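Input chain follows. Return structure tokens only.
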Amino acid sequence: MTDEQRIDISWARGVVAGVATYLVAIARACSLIGFTSAGKEIAYRADLLSAVIEKLAEVLGADDGKQEERTMSLDIYLDIEVDTGGEHPHDIRLWSGNATHNLCPMWCEAGVYDALYNRACSFAGSILPELRRGLQDMEARPDVYRAMDPPNKWGDYDGAVRFLRELIEACKKHPRATIGIWA
């Protein structure tokens, strides 16, 4: 791979990351105003665009050493801060979970995307109403959500439901824990 190709791939990744961020914001807005199908399609296109650039980089042999910085999934965790008498408080992890970004169309359709991706530093109990409504919708319309299973088989309806159930239980058990997100 030439230096020029490496720069082109690096530039393309940056552009795609910016475009994907805007597409996800648009998808979220669509979901909030009731255009859930449009939001789902937009989120899917953002993921597809990122996948195309990464496949191109793989085929061209581009390796900028930043693979570990790009995440393939959502990590969400619930922590509490404890004063142990030392100079700084100590964080204790009460729960953590992981879900692939391939589930974003389902999260948008269910109306839980914002709760999962944009509530870092909030109390766990504050996202419970959204999560419950979303899980209820997913369980009431499984065929709609199963149709959104990603073609690459990384993530599926059953895993999404299981993830939401576990997160809801953790939030009920620790409503004053602080939400942490790595996506």
